[in-house]
Amino acid sequence: MFNWLLIGIGDIAVKRVIPAILEEPRSVLYGLVTRHPEKAKPYGCKVWTDAREAFEDEEIQAVYVATPVALHAPLTIAALEADKHVLCEKPMALNYREARQMVGVAEAANRLLGVAYYRRLYPKVNRARQLLEEGVIGRPLLAEIHCAEWFPAENGERRWLLDPAMAGGGPLFDIGSHRIDVLNYFFGRPRRVCGQLANVVHDNPVEDCATALVEYETGVRGIVDVRWNTHVGRDGFRILGVEGEMDLTPLNGPPLAYPGGCEEIPCHANVHLPLVKNFVDAVLEGARLVSSGETAIWTDWVTEQVVRGSARKNYTG
């Protein structure tokens, strides 16, 4: 069996990661690391309050890092150096330098490093990628992504997301990173980036909205607008080509429209299960890791360019 150590028992871990590990037939939830051991009691596994002590257990094969972003790099690096494979939550790190360091340590340790960009495993996303490669819209030119929700962190829920020292940034790092990664999955390596951050509605230490313009080596441009400052929900994803348009709106829903066709392709009920399965396949069977450290660093590179560029425009959030 494949023994997992999970670090952190937050919202994502409880709702998705733990159920995914329990459902994946080769996987065992061997242990949990938490500052609140009582939270681990329902799972009947080993419990630690110190991750580095847990890494000394040779029965652990893989570590899932489900902590605030600031802890991703140090915990991932420590786990890799302890000869554990690691699947880390997104975004990969606070900055591109940390992300590169994580990849370098994984290579040196000969361990696998995955990052939880689970949309790469959406059947709809992969069908769209196939259609793009087949030229269904001709040469792709422009992708327009709009994701919006209301997130003031009222009542203290997930309030760490508003602390730049813990989260790195606001919606750019949170909901934006997922969508930037899908662009990278479709169009390859980004070449140039510009963007702006702002606080328009909320007076928070992180931005409440961000807009990025990403240009790819193929010439495709992607506009990613993400915001936490509206009650009007948006999950738009459209791609314009020379010969037609593809619409994946809503990105998290089943519809996929393109010239000559419209399909309904739902994702798995637990979007983390295909991610966990692919990771186990990669470790045990040598399968291709769909979302690896090597692919994820480019999302960190994009977000860093936006943050740096916006700072030069006197953004201080």
Report on the structure:
The chain has 317 residues and is an alpha/beta fold. The chain has 2 domains: 2-118 and 273-287, NAD(P)-binding Rossmann-like Domain (Rossmann fold), CATH 3.40.50; 121-268 and 298-311, Dihydrodipicolinate Reductase, domain 2. The protein contains 9 helices and 14 strands. The strands form 3 sheets. A 6-stranded parallel sheet has the order 3-2-1-4-5-6, with helices on both faces. The chain has a 6-stranded mixed sheet with strand order 8-9-10-7-11-12, covered by helices on one side. Helix 1 (11-23) packs across helix 8 (272-285), helix 4 packs antiparallel against helix 9 (293-311) and helix 7 (175-187) crosses helix 9. It is globular and about 55 Å long. The chain starts with a strand and ends in a 6-residue tail after the last helix.
In the CATH scheme, what's the topology name of the largest domain? Dihydrodipicolinate Reductase, domain 2
Spatial order of strands in the largest sheet? 3-2-1-4-5-6
Count of all domains: 2
Q: Strand fraction band?
A: 25-35%
The count of helical stretches stands at 9
Mean pLDDT: 96
* String of helices and strands: EHEEHEHEHEHEHHEEEEEEEHH
**Going by CATH, what is the homologous superfamily of the largest domain?**
Dihydrodipicolinate Reductase, domain 2
Termini separation (Å)? 46 Å
Number of strands: 14
Structural class given helices, strands, pairing?
alpha/beta
Q: Given the C-alpha coordinates, what overall shape results?
A: globular
CATH architecture of the largest domain: 2-Layer Sandwich
Q: In terms of per-residue confidence, which ranges show pLDDT below 50 for 5 or more consecutive residues?
A: none
Instruction: Describe the largest sheet.
Output: 6 strands, parallel
Estimated radius of gyration: 19 Å
Specify the helix fraction band: 25-40%
Text of the CATH class of the largest domain: Alpha Beta
